[in-house]
Q: What sequence folds into this?
C-alpha cells in the first residue's frame, strides 16, 4: 500500500493596521502591498495564504474598548475630551500623565466663566445682537477667561449653558442644537 505524500505548504498571515496619522494607508492599499510582497518574496518560496482579517479584528476590539471607556466616563460625569462644558473646568491629570496610568481628571465649577456667561446672557436679554456681543468679547477685560467666546457659535453656547443651568453635558453642539429647538418652539407657541 502506497502512502500519499502531504503537499501542505507553509502559510503566511499579513498584518496591517489603520492609523489616523497615515490616512492614505487604507485597508485596500495595505492588502495590495501585502499581495505584492507575497508574490515577489514568499510565493517563490512555496508559502501560501495572505490574510488581512487579523488586523481588522484587532482594530475593532480596540475601538470597542475605547467606546466602553468613553461610555463609563460619561455615565460617571467625568471628562472624556479636552474641553469642558461652559461654566466648568477640568482638573487633574490624564492617564498618560500619571504614574498609575489612571486618569484623575474631573469637572470643577468655573465661577469666572459662569460670571462671563451670565454677562453674555444679560446683554442678549437687553437686546444686544449676538454679533455685537462677540465683538465686545474680543476686547473686554472685565471677565478674564481662558476660553474664547468671540464668535457667533461660542456666544450661543454660553447663552444656552446659562439658560439650561450650566449642565455637565460634554457635547456642546448637541446642547446648542437642543436649546435652539426649544427656543423655536417657545417662539412659535407665543405667536399663536
A:
Amino acid at each position: 500500500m502506497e502512502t500519499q505524500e502531504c503537499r501542505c505548504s507553509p502559510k503566511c498571515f499579513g498584518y496591517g493596521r489603520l492609523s489616523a496619522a497615515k490616512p492614505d494607508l487604507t485597508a485596500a492599499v495595505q492588502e495590495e502591498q501585502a499581495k505584492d510582497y507575497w508574490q515577489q518574496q514568499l510565493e517563490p518560496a512555496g508559502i501560501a495564504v495572505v490574510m488581512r482579517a487579523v488586523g481588522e479584528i484587532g482594530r475593532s476590539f480596540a475601538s470597542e474598548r475605547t467606546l466602553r471607556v468613553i461610555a463609563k466616563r460619561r455615565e460617571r460625569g467625568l471628562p472624556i475630551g479636552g474641553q469642558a462644558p461652559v461654566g466648568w473646568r477640568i482638573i487633574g491629570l490624564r492617564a498618560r500623565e500619571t504614574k498609575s496610568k489612571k486618569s484623575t481628571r474631573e469637572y470643577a465649577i468655573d465661577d469666572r466663566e459662569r460670571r462671563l456667561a451670565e454677562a453674555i446672557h444679560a446683554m442678549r436679554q437687553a437686546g444686544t445682537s449676538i454679533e455685537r456681543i462677540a465683538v465686545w468679547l474680543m476686547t473686554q477685560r472685565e471677565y478674564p477667561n481662558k476660553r474664547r467666546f468671540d464668535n457667533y457659535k461660542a456666544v450661543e453656547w454660553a447663552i444656552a449653558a446659562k439658560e439650561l443651568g450650566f449642565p455637565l453635558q460634554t457635547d456642546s453642539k448637541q446642547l446648542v442644537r437642543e436649546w435652539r429647538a426649544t427656543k423655536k418652539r417657545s417662539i412659535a407657541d407665543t405667536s399663536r
